[in-house]
Amino acid sequence: MCSQSIFFFFLQDPLSTGLIIDLVTNGIELRFDARSQRLEIVRIYDLRRVELWYSGQTLSSAWAQPSVFQISKVFGPSIPGTYDQQQTHFKLSFPVSVKRLSLPN
Distance (Å, rounded) from C-alpha 19 to C-alpha 40? Predict the structure, then answer.
């Protein structure tokens, strides 16, 4: 199977906007900060193309599509979701915290 990837950036000033790599074959989009080049967002837009597992449970695959209930059950409480009637999808957000700790010498 041939893999397709699309790269997005602003050629005239590449540090003005982040780099977006769209892994079309896998249904995944990666967004990187323009200056630090750190991965900021992983967006999975086609759950049939990627197999996701968490804590021994299948979240998505070609044969199993996740439900709102299943996602909530696996990841626990989240910020209340919103339903977009125009696009007919439900959006759940999960708070993420990143902490940097200094290690003793």
Answer: 10
Its domain, for residue 22, covers 1-47
Which residues are bridge partners to 43 per DSSP?
A: 29
Q: How far apart are CA 34 and CA 54, in angstroms?
A: 30
Quote the pTM value. 0.59
- Could you report the per-residue pLDDT of 32-82, keeping only the tens digit for each? 988 888 998 888 888 888 888 877 877 888 887 777 777 777 776 566 777
For the chain, what is the domain count? 2
Torsion of CA 30, 4, 89, 91, to 10 degrees: -10
Three-state DSSP state, 65: coil
Residues 64 and 84 in one domain: yes
